Amino acid sequence: TASAENIEEEVGRVVEDAKELQDMVANHISKTSSEEQFLRQRALSLDSSIHRLRSLLDSLLSHKLLDLKLADKLDEDLQKARCIMVDGDIASLLPSNVQGRFLRMFLGPINVRASRKDVQLKVKEEYNSYRDRTALLFLLFPSMLLILRSWVWAGCLPAFPVQLYQAWLLFLYTGLALRENILRVNGSDIRPWWIYHHYCAMIMALVSLTWEIKGPTDCAQKQRGVQLFLQWAMMQGVAMLLQNRYQRQRLYTRIALGKAKRMDVVWGETAGVDGQLWLLCPILFILQGFEAYVGLLLLRTAFVGVVSEWQVIFCGFLLVVMAVGNFVNTVQTLMAKSRF
Amino acid sequence: TASAENIEEEVGRVVEDAKELQDMVANHISKTSSEEQFLRQRALSLDSSIHRLRSLLDSLLSHKLLDLKLADKLDEDLQKARCIMVDGDIASLLPSNVQGRFLRMFLGPINVRASRKDVQLKVKEEYNSYRDRTALLFLLFPSMLLILRSWVWAGCLPAFPVQLYQAWLLFLYTGLALRENILRVNGSDIRPWWIYHHYCAMIMALVSLTWEIKGPTDCAQKQRGVQLFLQWAMMQGVAMLLQNRYQRQRLYTRIALGKAKRMDVVWGETAGVDGQLWLLCPILFILQGFEAYVGLLLLRTAFVGVVSEWQVIFCGFLLVVMAVGNFVNTVQTLMAKSRF
Ligand SMILES: CC(C)(COP(=O)(O)OP(=O)(O)OC[C@H]1O[C@@H](n2cnc3c(N)ncnc32)[C@H](O)[C@@H]1OP(=O)(O)O)[C@@H](O)C(=O)NCCC(=O)NCCS
Ligand SMILES: CC(C)(COP(=O)(O)OP(=O)(O)OC[C@H]1O[C@@H](n2cnc3c(N)ncnc32)[C@H](O)[C@@H]1OP(=O)(O)O)[C@@H](O)C(=O)NCCC(=O)NCCS
Fold first, then answer.
1. What angle do CA A170, B185, B51 make, to 5 degrees?
2. d(CA A226, CA A203)
3. What is the number of helices (H) and of strands (E) in chain B?
4. Chain B contacts in chain A segment 225-264 (CB below 8 A)
5. Highest mean pLDDT among A125-139, A321-335, B295-309
6. CA–CA distance, A294 with A227 (Å, rounded to integer)
7. Angle value at C-alpha A56, between A52 and A60, nearest 5 degrees
8. How many Å apart are CA B53 and CA A13, to the nearest integer?
9. Given this model, what pLDDT does residue B260 score?
10. d(CA A112, CA B113)
11. DSSP alpha helix (H) spans, A152-262
12. B contacts of A24 (beta carbons < 8 Å)
């Protein structure tokens, strides 16, 4: 019949089309990748030129072979060239931060680098809004536990809700650590410590899950550690909200300034939000102090002998380490910023 | 000085180069993406043509308007066209399996799809070797615990090593679930159940972490559940090793047959490893039976009243659900295979 003849012809055409398209796509891929190779070569050589000129400039300066004003101008020019490379589309051709062991452990050898700049920004924004949602829960969850504890549970937390909270913390910190690693691969300058900090928090959540909450002995005394921990978590919620506001404004300032403008403002980049930083930092320091205090209290309850589980000693120790690390890294960040 | 003049000129050149390169890269990106857009359009229309012709073919056949031999040939041709699209480079242009909630929850909106076919294969191979390493540990870890239990610990497991094992399980299942989700996005036909199965296993590991292992009462009785669980885990290690051998050979058969050939063998694809499947399946069924048995025993210990923690009931219930799901899905897989 006509329809049968028709379909034979159409099927034949479809097979031909598929073969042709396959060839076209294969062609497109190989052409694109060889062009990319060429551009990458140029980017790499340009990158090394910038490095070479910067060290030449430094050595000329230190030997006083260069006029100071000229040196300043050249420094600015080099900075500009560097910004064009790092903030523009070229960045996707330069080798990225290596994808660390953590990501490989969980995800295998998949590449999480976004090749386009706008996708990278979207990832960053989503990270910020994830942190926002998190911060609210960080406030709500422990405060609810503490309120229920004194109003409903007569001073003695039942195990289940606390364990639910600890499981949530574990999930949360794992997500944050994964996302921050992904941001790093996508060119964020996040200090490694903030990521290690979340590894520590993951371990702590895991350990606290195995921590016996309701023993046969006096409840109030046994739960002193849990209670302190919850109070500290609430304070962290407040700090996170402030920190998020600051980070988000910083990101928006950078986006709003636009690509071209942004290149000229690296050294005064935080100008618009510097005020906030000086409000945020005292709060951060107080929090870090409280973190260390909670850690020391936990250690004390363990050594005085009220609670002798290894989990308590371990968490106390980890909290102190985290507090010290946070403090050192916040100070270093501030010092680096004030140098500009 | 000469050197100073030189550097001024060189810096100027570098800035110019950077601007030029930025333009070239931007150009390259926009050209590539518009070409891709064009190719994608063609791929999509070809895809819908194939769908249309297939249903036309079916309806012609059901109305007996087509010679059977011709229909077979056309069916084969359509299958061929489909294979060219799915197995070749075109696949990267077609919309992939949506990236599920699980990945978004942990990773945010980052794209984990590998655009090149060889990278996808590498991801799959790495997943297989990850499973291999895992399977060995699956054998070693619980058997060591059981041996130490009877030889060193006098029939009573201490809490710490068991909790270490449970934490390892949690980490492991999270990694597997993430990797399988990534494989799915990259075009694997893995049944959703095998992924849900790992979600269940994650939840079980988490719950078992909060499970009190060493109570004040009789140890041997309280640990009956843990002991059964460890025995089942050992058996699972054996099954995993066999399963991996089968899956790996299946993958290698597919790679070895090569792209062109592979397209002709989808329907007889497992030919080379069918024998293994008939060895593997009875073992899987036995294991699934044992899984259900352990679940029921846990439920019994809970209801008879030896151990009355909710964790025991929950894990028992989960094990039964997993066993039934595994059984149903294995049977469905076998039935789908035998239809060819
Ligand atoms: C001090 C602080 C506000 C400085 O923030 P900042 O001005 O963004 O710091 P930097 O300029 O060094 O940031 C570089 C990058 O790291 C990121 N970053 C900085 N601190 C971060 C943190 N704590 N977590 C995640 N990312 C962070 C920034 O977003 C930026 O990313 P980008 O390169 O993609 O734009 C910030 O580091 C901070 O909040 N630290 C204290 C955290 C703390 O102690 N929390 C626990 C309290 S108990
Ligand atoms: C029955 C079985 C051997 C069939 O395997 P198969 O022949 O590969 O099955 P399919 O052809 O349906 O596979 C389709 C895809 O899913 C993958 N897949 C199948 N079963 C899988 C599993 N259990 N885990 C992960 N991936 C699996 C295959 O690798 C294949 O991937 P691809 O499309 O990327 O090539 C396998 O499903 C299996 O081992 N099931 C039992 C698992 C079990 O019960 N474990 C617990 C024991 S208590």
1. 150
2. 16
3. 10, 0
4. none
5. A321-335
6. 10
7. 175
8. 11
9. 38
10. 9
11. 159-185, 192-209, 219-222, 224-262
12. 39, 42
